[in-house]
Amino acid sequence: MKLFLLIGLFAVSSNAQQERRFPDDFLFGAATASYQIEGAWNVDGKGESIWDRMTHTKPHLIKDMTNGDIAANSYYNYKRDVEMIRELGLDAYRFSISWPRILPNPLAPYEVNQAGVDFYNNYINEMLKYNITPMATIYHWDLPQKLQDLGGLLSPMFPEWFEHYARVVYEKFGDRVKLWTTFNEPREMCLLGYGGDEKAPFLNLTDIGTYYCAKNLLLAHARAYHAYNNDFKPTQNGECGIVINISWIGPLTDSEEDNYAAELKRQAEWGIYAEPIFSEQGGFPKEFAEVVAQKSIEQGYATSRLPELTEEERKFIQGSFDFLGINHYTGYLVSANEYKTANAVPSLLDDADVGVYISDDWLPSASDWLKMVPDSLYNLLTHLKEKYNNPPVYITESGWSEDPETGLIDDERILFYRTALNNALDCLEAGVNLKGYMAWSLMDNYEWIAGYTELFGLYEVDFKSEAKTRTPRKSAFVYKQIVKTRVIDPDYEPTDMVMTIDEGH
Question: Pfam families from the xrefs (predicted)?
Fold first, then answer.
């Protein structure tokens, strides 16, 4: 483990000698999500979400048998949360709005829960009081259970339900929120929730769950984007995008076969969500769509398991963005013939049918999916710059998990942030239109099926305490120093681990 740290720190040190700076208007922030921090799951008229239902009825699916009923209790601790943002000197805070807290009956968008609106008004106003820019995610996985009972994202009605909800939040909060994202991580919702069994609603419909979810999500995103663009932006003057989790996927070798395999995997993992919105031609990615169509016929399906977009739908979705939000953590390499594992048939993973290679030399985190991959952020953003004509980009999540036993001295997380942010500087120098970086996460929170066993917080949360006490980790002081100076100093060490609010924050 020490070898990893020494190698990484040497790389960071050599890069930072040039005293490269982030622009003054670069937006530094941190991110959280409603279900993961708010608690108050059945308080003040809030409705039931799919994560409420799942964690209460099937707790065995969670690694430590816990839930988000209380979590960090931010419903009551939001002023402390904003105080932490001030302590860090951040420019922005990315949070999400709970659909069932705003619309307990999501089929009745004119019956708004005023207590829910009041909570987010207080939250937003507390941020603006201290010149913190709010970035609001409209949907971060806590779907109203009532909509899941009607099919959730597999229902053709979902785009309409989502537009109604989006209009409510634009109307209630858009006078102050100027950065909106419609969905957080379509891949995780569709592949892991509908096509798999790693996220709620755990449907595991491997053949069509991912693809039907993807189409309805894209249409819902476009409806919400156009609603904002046409009816709210003229007076509110904000921007609207989408957040996609994108790992760097590269070829294992320089062979033509591995390069094609890597491209096919990119199309399968994130291209089916990004390509229809950001590409010049629109529609689902061509090569992968052809593979799914051919396999579907061979498997006895009447049509492709990846549903087609009509010409009208293609045009409606294409270009529905003001910026691209990217959650980026890691990466891996792809082989056309080696390192393959058995997958469900039919499924997206079987459709792509490639091998995945993860080097033993990459530093592992507390999460089995998260390794520190050299230059992954740089490789990804320069690739997207060329692929999608350099759209405005925010890194909306990026972070490192450690075990609860790690405590406050989180040197691996510091290494991750220094490495990632040096990559971000490399991207800026390469002309990438990178506008900001949001650390995941402001504080420890409920990490879905991992429960509280994998922690990402700049601030440690004492989940056993009634107050859910927040304490800054060493990484919080390092991140604060980077934000304050706009420079990554590899030699900076906090002296007393006492956090204060600097003048002006």
Answer: Glyco_hydro_1 (PF00232)
pLDDT at 3: 41
Closest CA to 244 of 68, 52, 381: 381
What the block records as the tokens of 393 is 């980009």
**CA distances (Å), origin 45, targets 40, 116, 124, 329, 397:** 10, 8, 20, 36, 30
**Omega prior to 346 cis, within 30 of 0:** yes
**Contact present, 327 and 377 (Cβ < 8 Å):** no
Residue 241's φ and ψ, nearest 5 degrees, are -140, -160
- CA gap 253, 93 in Å, rounded: 40
Rounded mean pLDDT, 129-134 = 98
Distance, in Å, from the CA atom of 370 to the CA atom of 402, rounded to the nearest integer, reads: 10
Q: Could you identify the residue written with the tokens 């956090």?
A: 499
Q: Please report the pLDDT score of residue 18 as a whole number.
A: 56
Question: Could you give the C-alpha distances from 495 to 88, 378, 416, 474, 499, in angstroms and in order?
Answer: 16, 32, 21, 10, 11
Side chain identity at 225, as an amino acid letter?
A: Y
Percentage of the chain with pLDDT > 90?
Answer: 95
Element (H, E) at 357: strand 355-357
Residue 338 is a catalytic residue: no
Question: CA-to-CA distance for 343 and 337, rounded, in angstroms?
Answer: 15
The residue with greater pLDDT, 428 or 505, is 428
Average pLDDT over residues 241-256: 98
State the pLDDT at residue 215.
Answer: 99
Mean pLDDT confidence for 476-495: 97
Across the chain, mean pLDDT equals 96
Q: Is the dihedral of CA 155, 223, 27, 238 positive or negative?
A: negative
Among the listed residues 38, 163, 185, 275, the single catalytic one is 185
Instruction: Give the burial class of 450: count Cβ atoms within 10 A of its Cβ; 0-12 exposed, 13-18 middle, 19 or more buried.
Output: middle
**Structural element, H or E, at residue 277:** helix 272-278
3-state SS track over 38-69: CCCCCCCCCCCEHHHHHHHHCHHHCCCCCCCC
Active site residue 185: yes
CA distance 123 to 459: 19
- Measure the N-to-C terminal CA separation of the chain; round to a whole number of Å: 37
Catalytic hit among 269, 397, 402, 454 = 397
Report in angstroms the alpha-carbon separations of 183 from 99, 219, 410.
Answer: 12, 12, 30
Identify the three-state secondary structure at position 135: strand
Average pLDDT over residues 379-408: 98
Element spanning 147, H or E: helix 145-149
* DSSP letter string, 414-464: HHHHHHHHHHHHHHHHTT--EEEEEEE-SB----GGGTTSSB--SEEE-TT
